[in-house]
Structure formats: structure tokens, C-alpha cells
Amino acid sequence: MIIRIAVLIFGLWVLLQIIFKYRDRKMSLTGLIFWLVLWAVIIAVANHPQITDKIAKLVGVGRGTDMAVFAAILILLYLIFRIYIKITEIESQISEVVKHIAIIKVKRKKIGKTVKGE
Amino acid sequence: MIKIITKEKSKIFIIIPAFNEAKTIGKLLTELKKAGYKNLVVIDDDSRDNTGQIAQKLGATVLTHIINRGLGGALRTGFAYAIAKKANIIITMDADLQHRIENIPNLVKPILDGKADVVIGKRKFSSQKMPVKRKIANQVGNIFTQAFFGFRVADSQSGFRCFSGSALKKLKLYSNRMEISSEIIAEIHRNQLRFSEVPITTIYTKYSLSKGQSFKNGIKTLLRLIAVRLR
Q1: To probe the interface with A, which of B51, B172, B174, B224 has the most A CB atoms within 10 Å?
Q2: Is position B163 within any domain?
Q3: CATH of the domain at B120
């Protein structure tokens, strides 16, 4: 029973965080929908575990809890993969910025030298 | 021995990525200058020592990274500079003195003769001097480069390369670290560039070995290579 209340409180807190992040424009609309649905499902499953049994029967996995764990692992792996790709992309963008700064600095130095030489 | 004339040397841009190479960069630049190469570009990848100052004093163009970006990031900066300078021939070489200046003409010749767009110096893997760990790492690099990008080369991880200006412009590179070597190979293949490999001699000193990839780094490189492939 305690676990249900804990998940409910924690889930509601996360939902609020998601809404705030969207309000502060730190999250896209797609992100908002994805996370809201995900957490709504988590809260629903925690409070009505029998839902998972029905879905498990439907997809052919033995027990509802097994299916929930299986789905959770899949979702986590997918999210890690997305984050990994995103970080790689951001790293590349940082390099672009660093590259531009390095080239601009050299150009300025050379212009400075020419002016002094004149 | 192949020789290149001074007029041709003035067209060559030598790009040297450097991170904490104060011990060797001075000697390398002095030797390059002595050999008649004038366009020396050092990318100081946020070194903690005075690599940048030494290079500057010796008359090299120093491109300073305000944050360490790794080998790939440094090479990309050097390439962008060379392209902006309309360089005809671009060489990349390591700062740790493992590459020999005498090999530069061998790398440049196929491009000057119009026979290749990119030339890569291949190391002798049969050499006694190359440590076993290094040999294995290089072969693994070759195998994965072939598996991911479908292009077999003798030495995909070599840092001694030569590009024609027009070929370099075609390469779309995104890697930041060691995986850049494989990405370059993939880009040569994608752009259908004329490619040649020439044998080079490498000198392995305690210092240059300490600078190489560790096993842990190799695994990281592999993971990044997968990310490059998935992009």
C-alpha cells in the first residue's frame, strides 16, 4: 500500500516538473506529450496493477509485472540511446564553436600584426 | 628518394594537432622549417603546458582551442583553416615525432602527379618495433572501419595523411576524438575519392607510446564509431 502512495506522490511531482519545464520552454511539445503519457501510465499501473495482467495476457507475456519490467527496460534502453546520440551531436556542435573561436582569434591576431607593421 | 621543389613546398599546409606536446613540438617545427615547409599550422587543443607558446615562437600559425576537443576536433579546426586559406595540399601529422619528415614527399607525390586525391601513410605492422598491443588495436580499427563503412584499408588509424584541397572540401566530418581516423576513411569512400596508401616509417619512443590509445580509450572509440555510423 505504501508503495502505491509513494509512487503516486512521486509521479505527481514528476508530472508537475514536466509541465513546468514545458512552460519554461525547456521542453518541446512532443517531449511534453511523451513524458506525460509515460508517467500517467506509471501512476496508473502502480495503483491498478491488475491492468498489466490484462495487457500481459493480450501480448502473451506470463505475468503483468514481468511485462511491466520488460517494457520499462526497453524504454530505458531506448532513452539512453537517444541521450547518447544527442550528446554526440552536442559535442560536435561544441567543437564547431571552439573551431570558429580559434580561427577568428588567429585572423584578428594577423590583422593586428598588419596594422602594427604599417 | 623522392624530392619536392621549394615552390611546391610553399603550397603545402602541414596541420599538427597538439595536446600537451611541449616536449616535442619545438623539435618537430624546427625540423619542418629546416626542410623548407613554411605553412605550419598547430592546433593547440587546450594544452596545460606551453605547447602553444613554443609553436608561436617558432613561427607556426597557432589555432587555440579554448576547450579540449580531442584529435577529431583539432583536425577539423585545422582543416577549416586550410580550406579558408585555399590550401592546395594539406598534410596531417602527429606532434609526438613518430612521423618522419623525409616521408612527406612520398605522401605528396601521388597528389602532385594527379594520381590521387588522398594519400595515407601506412605503417609496417610486421615491424618488430611496433608493440603487439598496438598492432592488435590497429587491426581491430581496420576491421571495424571495414565493417561499418565497407572500405578495406591497410592502415585506417594512421595520422600521417595528405589531401588535395578540393578533396578536403568534400569531407563532412563530425567526430571529435580518435574515431575521426575511421570517419575520414568513410568519407573518402562516400565521395569516391582517388585514394592511395604509401609505406611510411614510424618511430616509437616511450613518449609517443604514452600518447597512444589505451584499451579503455579504444573501446570508447569503438562506441563513438557506432554513433558516427548511426548518424
Answers
A1: B174
A2: yes
A3: 3.90.550.10
Domain ranges of chain A: 2-93
Instruction: Give, for all 118 residues of chain A, the pLDDT tens digit.
Output: 788 888 889 989 999 999 998 888 888 888 888 889 988 988 888 888 888 888 888 888 777 778 788 888 988 988 888 888 788 888 888 999 999 999 999 988 877 776 666 5
Cell 589505451 belongs to residue:
B214
**Is B1 among the domain residues?**
no
CA torsion angle B75 B225 B119 B13 (round to 10):
0
CA distance A69 to chain B (A): 27
C-alpha cell of residue B76: 577539423
Domain total in chain B: 1
Residue A69 contacts B where some CB pair is shorter than 8 Å: no
Does ipTM surpass 0.85 in this model?
Answer: no
